[in-house]
């Protein structure tokens, strides 16, 4: 391994998601003998941001995030712009970043890749959120964020059920979320130029495209192209949903045939019927809602927002792949 991989390694782990004894055994077996490995638990009050910030400030060259999407997002947020590498050890239900970067999902394989893989850079999305109570906050995410069915599905999914049955726990939330019509009224501006006001069902903005392995909601999204991708979903009745479902199935098959979105643009199916699916791409998007909407980032609902400004931070995060 390179010299920079032989220094201080910090493992930020969620004790509710991983078996600490097994994780310690695997990391100890894979880490170079010269590496100094430190262990830090997440807490209900801080799911990884403070721990990863302290690790970066103390000279760590690699921080392993072992937990669900929330832990990975917060560790990634803290390491953004530091040059410290993130190693992903996925232990949640969605494992969105690991799936989109084609990282191993098993504990042993993910530890091996996180320690011995190569470093690559990806973009990070930064969102300034305007809450329903008129306060503001800034959050970063690495996969996707949105409102509508996406956020409602997550909000209505039972955490205990997720632990018992895994991804199947999302099915009741999906059915409940899809039951509504185009109830979200939003005005969005892309790169300060293109302005549209739409009534829609779901709005997704992201840096990665797959909501599950090889199932692309943002079929042209590339994690290191310096661009945000957006899809506005506004079906017209049952036939609109059927057409959207058909397009997603076709895009999934294309992705399975050729996994790199940069090589499949001409084969991906895009908006049909008119206005049911609207795709766009840019560096900054501003969205304003007629009434506060539940907003999710990387699989976690974070509250109701009135508006958000989201911009891309090109190549801001080093990830061990």
TrEMBL record:
Cofactor(s) the protein needs: Mg(2+)
Stated name of the protein: NAD(+)/NADH kinase
Protein keywords: ATP-binding, Kinase, Lipid biosynthesis, Lipid metabolism, Nucleotide-binding, Phospholipid biosynthesis, Phospholipid metabolism, Transferase
Keyword Transferase: yes
PANTHER family assigned: SPHINGOSINE KINASE (PTHR12358), SPHINGOSINE KINASE RELATED PROTEIN (PTHR12358:SF54)
Transmembrane segments: none
Protein species of origin: Corynebacterium qintianiae
Domain of life: Bacteria
UniProt keyword annotation of Nucleotide-binding present: yes
Domain called DAGKc: residue spans: 4-132
One GO term of the biological process aspect: phospholipid biosynthetic process
GO MF term list: ATP binding; kinase activity
